[in-house]
Amino acid sequence: MAVTEITATKFQDMIRVAAHRINKNADFVNSLNVFPVPDGDTGTNMNLTFQTGAKAVLESNDESVGDLAKHLGKGLLMGARGNSGVISSQLFRGFAKSVAHKKSLTAQDLADAFAHGVETAYKAVMKPVEGTILTVAREAAKAGLKAANGSDDALVVMQAVVKGAKRALAKTPDLLAVLKEVGVVDSGGQGLVFIYEGFQEGLSGKISSDVHDVTDEEMNEMINAVHHQSAQVQLDPADIVYGYCTEMMVELGDGQNLKHFDYEPFRNYLNTLGDSTLVISDEEVVKVHVHTEHPGTVFRYGQQFGSLMKIKVDNMRLQQESIIEREGALDQQVAQKPLAEMGVVAIAAGQGLGELFKSLGVTHVLNGGQTMNPSTNDILDAVKAAHAKHVIVLPNNGNIFMAAEAAAKAATDVEVAVVKSKTINQGMTAMLGYSPDADLATNQSEMTAQLPNVISGSITRAIRDTTINGLAIKDHDWMGIIDGTITVTDKDREAAGIAMIDKMI
């Protein structure tokens, strides 16, 4: 049966089945992961990333595909883990922008959205590598556009997208030497095929109710409630001049009766209505917090620029006693502590490494690493925890670079720079160039200059039989990796470590 229109409900079906399909096949995608090393995390990263976006879509009551796609794009970005996760988030961010303001989609709309997603993803990657998820996405989009020229059936377009993706996936070994050497297709591309297959099944009516339940923190937390409550603890109810803690989230629009959003005039006007004014925005959403005596005036002002997505009002005078009881002395001290000029966030696994980094001057350590890549949102939370005006991020793993860069771009009210440390050793060496008295650009430059001064070795276990750089690697062998290149392999972990150290020396 032809599908000439993709409604909001049908779009949610597509997302639901895709989330189920990538979740069920994540282990298989992991088994293909050989680029750059066979550490088996691409499926996990893509799955966790997609689930955050799917959660945002499936929990929404919006009746417009454009709105749902916006939730998908933002959810994926904030939950993006690893390179494959960040690239897939960019694919669907571009998709979302293409269908913005569309209540439903035609076959041509669907094809155009896939194509726009590819453009966005390629722009986001500094040095695109062919034979990866990017190639699969590009060829799939081309197939979709070709199908849309001859059919108004969205299902026909989606089938063409899947076929194009599979054809491109089969050719990835011809484009990336390491894949051909090992005899596998690209893992990220395979993950994308599973997602597209889910879209096709959802569109055709093959719905699965078995969706992975992700309990991540809410992606778009508007205001840090602990901060505001801690500030209120210091007040006597009689001293509260503006009694209503008022918050709103406005989806900016461009309709005939809507005003153009200009940050400074918007914030300045709200400041005349009260105090403790906080306004943050991106190109799609503006978030507001203000203490005022007239919440309704605040909301009516927000409606002049778009639709109210969330509103919240607390009577601070009535809540004062419960807030005082709830807040501890430590929370009060944290809330009152002034922002430092400079801070450093390092990503490392385990308490021991965390203590080492802190002894070198790191402000906050985020738990994560090779097989536990933090999301963009995790890194943003860590940046906030650093409690500084300017923050350096040390990823200490190449697979975390893109999520760290995305967090740096998404950060508000704090300037963030990434020093691209590939290993724990590089991260620690980078701290030798750090000075809390220097500015952000100087610290980034000096710390980056330290990176070539260290040779890093690590031991990890293979998850499949393969051959790389002439080395025959068996499943469960221990691999010695020097600066990202597999140099030794052995069934015994200690022997692999000793052989690796010999090569490093």
Q: In angstroms, what separates the terminal alpha carbons?
A: 66 Å
The whole-angstrom Rg is: 25 Å
Helix tally equals 21
Gross geometry:
flat
* Tally of domains: 4
The count of β-strands is 13
Strand content: 15-25%
Keywords: Kinase, Transferase
Pfam family, one: FakA-like_C
GO molecular function: glycerone kinase activity
Protein name: Dihydroxyacetone kinase-like protein
Explain how this protein is built.
This protein is α/β, with parallel strands linked by helices and 505 residues long. It is built from 21 helices and 13 strands. It has helices at 8-24, 26-32, 42-58, 65-79, 82-98, 107-124, 133-150, 154-175, 177-182, 187-204, 225-233, 263-271, 295-303, 316-326, 329-336, 351-359, 376-385, 401-410, 424-430, 440-450, 493-504; strands at residues 244-252, 274-281, 285-292, 306-315, 340-348, 364-367, 388-394, 415-418, 457-461, 466-468, 471-473, 478-482, 485-490. The strands form four sheets. The protein has a four-stranded antiparallel beta sheet. Helix 11 (225-233) packs across helix 15 (329-336). The model is unreliable at 35-39 and 208-235 (pLDDT under 50). Residues 9-201 form the DhaL domain. GO terms for molecular function: glycerone kinase activity. Pfam families: Dak2, FakA-like_C, FakA-like_M.
Comma- or semicolon-separated keywords:
Alpha-Beta Plaits; DhaL_dom; 21 helices; 4 domains; Rossmann fold; 505 residues; 16% strand; flat; alpha/beta; 51% helix; 4-stranded parallel beta sheet; 4-stranded antiparallel beta sheet; Serine Threonine Protein Phosphatase 5, Tetratricopeptide repeat; transferase
